[in-house]
Amino acid sequence: MYDKATIQILFRFSQIPITVYDLDWNQLMSAPSNLIEPGKYERNIFEKLQTELITNDHCFLPYQEMVPIGIGGCTDGTMYYVLGPVAYGRTDDFMCRQFIKKNSIRECYKSQLESVYSLIEYFIGRKLEDYTGDTVKESLITNEAIRQIDNFDQNHSFRDELTWFEHITNGDYEYMDNHVFSTTTSHPVILDNLMKNEEYITAISISLAARAAISGGVSSSEGFLNNDIFLKRLSECRNVQEVINLKKESQVYFAKLVANNKKKNAMNIYVEKAKKYIETNRFKQVKIEDVAREVGLSKNYLQKLFKSNEGVSISEYISDVKIEAACNMLKYSDRKIRDIAEYLHYGSISHFSVAFRNKMNISPKEYRDRNRRITFL
Questions:
Q1: Largest CA distance in the chain
Q2: Under the phi-then-psi rule, with left for phi > 0, alpha for psi from -120 to 50, and beta for the rest, what region is 25?
Q3: In the prediction, which pLDDT does 74 show?
Q4: What are the DSSP calls for 26-95, one per residue?
Q5: SS3 297
Q6: CA 28 to CA 47: how far, in whole Å?
Q7: Residue 298 class from Cβ within 10 Å (0-12 exposed, 13-18 middle, 19+ buried)?
Q8: 26-31: long-range pairs with CB below 8 Å, 24+
């Protein structure tokens, strides 16, 4: 018989909830003491645990095959000890969050599976020779391999996945759209419920596609935002075909995001070259034809591209650069305003004054009077 203090200490060190029952399943004590009552799904698991402990002195029951949450139990012949629920793996992915929400699963303490079995060994007073982490894993692997063979299931290869990932990263959306294999890589039916099986596979595919797009140059915020949108749409699918269609749509969409991003960046190269040329030649007469020739584009296309990327016309940008240079000269030099107009290749002082006033809302002289620096560091 364990007292309450001992159970509290065991919980504190293991971080595994412990509830003690007598042989009639009347609760005697628990740690932590504020464990909330389980919902319907967990009560069903608890009933299965009770049934298992009729013929076995210990057991561990996962809540669901693909979700790393479970509950353990054991008996020393005088008491029953229920351990959990515990999360023995990550539960923050889409599939786990959906499962937890749908079945109103209580918040789980995190613990390694080995720690649960160590507590079981402590309570029953003997070592479990038939349990090691590797043995359980090997058993799961063997049974799953046999099941897949029996059902003619075939998983895709890592090379297939790399090819699929590479096409999205490169923005090959036309390839993704035209090659069915790229968007429907082979995978086994893990769950008896085909709809759930395809939902899980599609959720993983969407998340991988989002990360492939980010690797291809799409911003993290845009990639993850679209990831969340597709996952939300996945939760609204009504049948398997809708899920499959959404999976393909997501792959093509993420590849197209990459392609558009690359195209936009390629266009920006020309715009950046044009801006650099204008700023370098601000003390010369800058003609749009000269800028277009420098960057290797036609005048009309450069004007459209510049306006699209910068929000101002290239003529306005040239004027802004020259006025900025004029402001510096008015502040930091004693050159006459007429000379400044000539330096910047304005046709006349009146032309310069009009352009300056249009941008700064005051005349060049007024600007100098307000901002002239007499001493320089």
A1: 106
A2: left
A3: 94
A4: -EEEEESTTPPPP-HHHHHHHHHHHHHHHH-SEEEEEEETTEEEEEEEEE-SS-EEEEEEEE-S---SHH
A5: coil
A6: 18
A7: exposed
A8: 28/79, 29/4, 31/4, 31/7
SS3 readout for 110-161:
ECCHHHHHHHHHHHHCCCCCCCCHHHHHHHHHHHHHHHHHHCCCCCCCHHHH
pLDDT digits (tens, 9 = 90+) for 102-124: 888 888 888 888 888 889 989 99
12 pLDDT band, cuts 50/70/90, is confident
**313 CB-near residues (< 8 Å, 6+ apart):** 303, 306, 307
How far apart, in whole angstroms, are the C-alpha atoms of residue 377 and residue 375? Answer: 7
Answer whether 0.70 is exceeded by the pTM. no
pLDDT of residue 200: 82
Give me 184's structure tokens.
């429907």
Cβ count near 198 (within 10 Å): 24
Task: Check if the beta carbon of residue 119 is closer than 8 Å to that of residue 18.
Answer: yes
| Predicted pLDDT at 146 | 53
What letter does residue 20 receive in the DSSP assignment?
E
